Amino acid sequence: MPLAIYVLGLGIFTQGTSEFMLSGLLPDIASDLRVSIPDAGLLISAFAVGMVVGAPLLAIATMRWPRRTTLVALQLVFIGAHVVGALAPGYWVLFATRIISAVSYAGFWAVAVATGVGLVAPDARSRAVAVIASGLTLATIVGVPAGTVLSQFTGWRSVFWAVAALTAVSLVCSLLTIRESAEARGETRSTAAELRAMARPQLWLSYVVTALTFGSVIVTFSYLAPLLTGVTGLSAQWVPAQLALFGAGGLLGMSIGGRTAQAHPIRTLLFGLSVLVLSSALLAVAGDNVLITTALVFALGVSGFVTNPALQSRVFALAPGAPTLVGAGNTSAFNIGNTLAPMMGGLAISAGLGFASVAWVGAAIGAAALLATAWAAYLQHRTARPSTAPCARAAV
């Protein structure tokens, strides 16, 4: 893999830490800003809303820019938003900075994936996407738990300063290593042409699967800290270790998915979603048992991220004529799930159903994702049926 692929993964790591770090900071933020935990949870949804909107808008707005320039500019905006967030005097200022951060991060995601896919051969795209996306998994293993520990000693605002500093390091690395390929420099990217290339029903069904799949895991992860302390009975000091365990499972899942997604995207999705639904349901009924909960947290990480390379790379195969917008659309789909699922979890908690109820919400969303994936498999089989070529059968 080119060094630039790993640098793109570093950029996702630094910014992805911010995307998920609130899962370990919600109690402290709620206490400091004098809001409820469900209200603090809306900060997660605010970030997701910014990503939903930001990915396609920034992909269109910067389509004719050199990709390195775009990546650096978006990181600068992200850094600035986190500095303001660290100094935020109240809830609504922090809310606004989360949206701004998310818009820039969404643009970075979309351009980073498009850049990475363009730097490797077609048969290496799933691995390249897996390497870039593994930055997000490492964020859950290292960044989020480290941020939680840092907040316990120096307050939640210090985590925002740390993310800003790490993103600055990533920005410098981007300047030093990312170069436009000769093919990228010569291509003329057209918004209209890419939109026409996206007019495929199977692509939009894939977006539905992406939204449901990510929503299924993120609804539980978003409220994992209060679930662990309020239902399982763990002390706050053990929460970072559980978050790291989730991330370790995610890294394993990403590694497995990166190897299976290119040849068997649908099977990878069906396997991951089945384990995700089962793990979520078991967590809902057995979340008061420490050993079972610990095992299920790891299983959630594996199943939640084994699907990621398939979700990311499959859309490029479905619409190869839209290398920029197809990735932006997928980023938006991820964050539609990231927006609605925590809101649904918050509603369940506010209704008095308890923190364990978020796992039931995750199981239900995951079941819907399974049905959508089964429909995608049927459509793919029906399309490929006239052909008996081995490559057509291997794509399942």
Summarize this structure as a short list of keywords or feature phrases.
396 residues; single chain; globular; cell membrane; disordered C terminus; transmembrane; Growth Hormone, Chain: A; transmembrane helix; MFS; 2 domains; mainly alpha; DHA1 family chloramphenicol resistance protein-like MFS transporter
Descriptive account of the structure:
There is one protein chain. The protein has 396 residues and is mainly α. The chain folds into two domains: 1-178, Growth Hormone, Chain: A (Up-down Bundle), CATH 1.20.1250; 200-382, Growth Hormone, Chain: A, CATH 1.20.1250. It is 83% helix and 0% strand. The chain has helices at residues 3-33, 37-61, 67-86, 91-118, 125-154, 156-177, 182-186, 191-197, 201-222, 224-232, 239-260, 265-286, 290-306, 308-318, 325-350, 357-384, 390-394. Helix 2 (37-61) packs across helix 4, helix 5 (125-154) packs antiparallel against helix 6 (156-177) and helix 15 packs antiparallel against helix 16. It is globular, with a radius of gyration of 20 Å. Keywords: Cell membrane, Membrane, Transmembrane, Transmembrane helix. This is DHA1 family chloramphenicol resistance protein-like MFS transporter.
